[in-house]
Structure formats: structure tokens, C-alpha cells
Amino acid sequence: MPVTPKYTWEQTLETLTVHIEIPGITRCRPDVFATSALLKVNALPYLFHLDLLHDVDDTQTAAAVTDQGVTFMLRKGHAQPQRVRLLARRASALVRLGDLPAATGDYKQALQLDPSNANIRHDLLEVQHCSSIKVSDRAAARQLADARLAAQDYAGAAEAYTALLHGKRAMLLRLLVRRGSALAHGKRYGEACLDYAATSAPEKTRPGEKKGFVEEMRFVAMRLHTKDQAPKEGQKPAENPWQKWQPTREGYLRFLTESKAVYEVLERIVEEASHPEYKLFRNTGLERSARLAQDVAWMQNEFRLAPVQLSEDGPGISYARLLSELAETDPQAFLCHFYNIYFAHTAGGRMIGTKVAGMLLDGRELEFYRYDGEVREKLDAVRERLNEVAEGWSREQKDRCLAETEKSFSYSGGLLRTIVVPAGEEA
Fold this sequence. Notes:
- With about 425 residues, the chain is of the alpha+beta class.
- It has 3 domains: about 5-75, Immunoglobulin-like, CATH 2.60.40; about 80-200, no CATH class; about 240-415, Up-down Bundle (Heme Oxygenase, Chain A).
- It is about 55% helix and about 10% strand.
- The strands form 2 sheets. The chain has a 4-stranded antiparallel beta sheet with strand order 1-2-7-6, with no helix packed on it. It has a 3-stranded antiparallel beta sheet with strand order 3-4-5, with no helix packed on it.
- The longest helix has 30 residues, at about 330-360.
- The model is unreliable at about 135-155, about 160-170 and about 195-200 (pLDDT under 50).
């Protein structure tokens, strides 16, 4: 079992310094890794993993390795953008609950902090417009003698709200229409109105829900890590350490080829957009298939390796087939795989790529692991879009997406094992 080293930290208003005590670390070729949310040092037999309470600016992160240990110098994230995001998210939640005056106040505060934010300005105008319209008089609806007119009144109210809020409450309102209309046809107007109110009641908060749906996904994913990978949240048994792996160039070429099949399908699905929400995930800057094609060609030429022939039951085509099916039948489950694939590659995937490059490619960095611009900004944009899409999902749809996380881990693990396992022996 790895040994957790001691560490100390100190902070100012702007900076955070973390020192990990590992005597003699310079003699064991340590792996040092940092993102905006975590710090990690792997120096056998020591393993250090620290989840940061708040994000830091990873563009200004520095690390110093001495014979006594590792020191991380971090610069804290700016408080004002975090405050703007918090206000905007809270305002969005208040809109979903129907509290338009409170939402208006939060949007105005956010706009004062960030006057150039066009998205917040647009949302504020929408809410103000919605607040000025009288959609339905429920008291009058209860007095209607004709149940058909009452049903039309309920449906008209829902349609007006849906148009004004651009689908943010579409699922709730469709439920209201069905219940309200059915009861109104039976002239049970009081019960219809109670159903309207009951469906607006807040549900029990899920872990991470207050920060957005992507944070819920993170909580679920962390529980699928091992204790070594995530000491606080990991629940899975430890796997064989990387040092026991014996990667080969043939296996690595196969991994790249199998992965290319998966990324090609991901990009085709969002480009064809059989569901409208997929359009939001085009041209994210995270696309990998073209870069993988370059790497596959380079490895074949550089090391005189034969092209990999993919089998129908291999990990790449099997995963691509699953993604194609989910994209048509279950968009929530598909987007779970979409996000987890891209996020995992930018985090652990790049660490593994660096390790393999040192063992097989004389340290050459493949195109698969390179990005134009800041990866963090690209991921943040995808997170925001996914949070926006998930606002229109029911709780059942969100849970179905979360339930797909373990399957995405399993299929991604199958791809990774091709680096060291011969074809036909992945199971």
C-alpha cells in the first residue's frame, strides 16, 4: 500500500503554498501533477493526493522539487468571476422555482459585477419580460363551468411560459398540463391547482446539485475511483499499479486506433445532431479524431508497424456502437459518456500518455495529447453547456445520466488495457 506523506500549507489573500515532505524524492523520478482543483505526487512508496477546496489559477501554478520534498506555489482564482457564476446559477434556479422577482435581483447583481456579460443580460431581459405578462388567472379557471375551456386555459399558460423561458421549465410545465387538463375535464379545478403547486415544490438536494449538474456527475465519478486515486471519496478496490504494466508499441498503436474509432463516432453524432441539444457540443476544441489519425500514421511509419485491424467485438467498435445507440434512444446517457470521455482524457489520459511516451517513444508528445489554447477554458465551456442542457431535464433523466457513469468508466478502461494486453485478451 502506498504511504501518504506529511504536508504543510500556508496562504495569503492571493496565494497558497503547499509543501509535501518526501526526503530523497529526487532519487526516485517522481510524477508531479496539478490542476485547478487537485495536487498529486507519485514517488514510490509515497502517494500524495489533495483535492482543493476552491479552484486555483492553474496557468500560474509552479512546483519545486528538492531533496526534502515538493513545494507547490499556487495563485488563487479570482473571487469576482466566481461570484458572478454563483449569482447566475442561483438566479437560474429561482426561475425554475417560479420566483421571478428574486431571480431578477440576482441577475442585476451579476450584471453589476460583469457588465459585459451578454448571456446574463439576455437572461435578465427574459425574466423581466416574463414577469410583466399575466399568464393565467387560476382563480378564474376554477370558476369556469366548461371543463374544456379550463383545460385550454391551463395549456395556454404552460405554452406561454415555455416560449418565454425557452424550455427551462418545459418538463415541469408539460407535467402540469397533463395533470391539470385531466382534472379540469372532470371539473376538479381545486385539485388541478394543487397539482400545479405540488409539482413546483423543491426536491431533496443531491450531492453537488447546488453547483450544477456537472458537479453531480463529478461526485458520482469520484466514488468510482480507488482510495489511492481519491482518498476522500474513492470506493473501488485498488488495481495493479502502473509500474507492473509492460506497454508495447504494438499495443499503444492499437490503443490509438481503437480510440480513434470512438472519437470519430462522438464527433459524427454531434455534427449530425439527431437531438437538438447535441448542436451545443460542436467545435468545442476538444475533438481528437483528426489528431489521432496523425499519430496512427506517424507510429506506423516511424516504427514500421502494420495497420491495426479492428474487430467488431473489440473495445473501440463496441464502444462506438453503444454510443450510436444511446445517441438515438437516450440523449442523457449519451451526454454522460460524451463528457466523461473528454474529461478523462484531459486529466488522467494525458498523464498516462506522458508515461507511455517516456517508455516507448523517447519522450515524444503525440498530437492526441496536444490542444490549441487552454484546455481548462474549453472544458469550462463544455461544463456550462451541459449544465444549461440539464436544467431542462427531469430528475429521472438526470439520474439516468448519472447511472451511466460506471459503464463509461468500464468501456474507457477496456480501451486503456489494449496498451498492454494482446488483441482478444481484454476481458
